[in-house]
Amino acid sequence: MTTALITGSTAGIGAAFARRLAADGHDLVLVARDTKRLREQATELHDRHGIEAEVLTADLAQDDGIEAVAARLADRKNPVDLLVNNAGFGNKGRYLDVPMADELKMLKVHCEAVLRLTYAATQAMCERGRGGVINVASVAAFLPRGTYGASKAWVVQFTQGAAKDLAGSGVRLMALCPGFVRTEFHQRAGMGTDNIPGWMWLDADKLVASALTDLSRGKSLSIPDPRYKVLMGATKLVPRGMLGGISSRAGRKYGPEHRAQR
């Protein structure tokens, strides 16, 4: 039986990955900050699907949190076959409205944690000649969206570059770029969603199913919905200055999928 480690597993896209992978018979390592919610999630998935669900409490905005997860990924006796780097968050406010400490925290979670955890996972996977990594980015990576979009653009470029470097190793890497997915965190962060058209919202479970199919096909980039594929294709034809205005009207204060590490 294979094992998948999911960061930010207790809600949103992370929880959808956990449900799907457990249903498919994978053991899980569930990573988030809230121990109580992690234990409840682990118990539910174990009881429903008969899989083993390990709990690892870690804050990926802190070095010790990153190190704890990296150590688990490097464990050769209990190997992880699939890493899903899903933890992340969006800051409310325009550039200069957001405190610098919050901007740096975003870069820590979105970039440094992804880099270090991918490194730990792929080192062990390459030794075995198999494995996979899904780094959850965003369609914001293709739009001028300040620190959030820039951090997600880094995730896409890093993942595709690493995938090219590891071609032929048996290890697959893929950047997942969803659009708007409803989670509890819009409300918890006080972010309104009334200005987002209904067609832009995606179902988390369908998104995950599409992402896993793309990974199995060897794709290094997944935009898991025809609507967003068309929209992202159109961005190549629209002047960049106009994209900034469109991006702002579509959700200036938060990233499209707006996940949070829990």
Describe this structure in words.
The structure is a single chain. The protein is α/β, with parallel strands linked by helices and 262 residues long. It has 9 helices and 9 strands. The chain has helices at residues 12-23, 35-49, 63-73, 100-128, 146-165, 185-188, 204-216, 226-235, 240-249, and strands at residues 3-7, 27-32, 53-57, 82-85, 131-136, 171-176, 180-181, 201-202, 221-222. The protein has a 7-stranded parallel beta sheet with strand order 3-2-1-4-5-6-9, sandwiched between helices. It has a two-stranded parallel ribbon with strand order 7-8. α1 packs parallel to α2, α3 runs parallel beside α4 and α4 (100-128) packs parallel to α5 (146-165). The longest helix has 29 residues, at 100-128. It is globular, with a radius of gyration of 17 Å. The two termini are 27 Å apart.
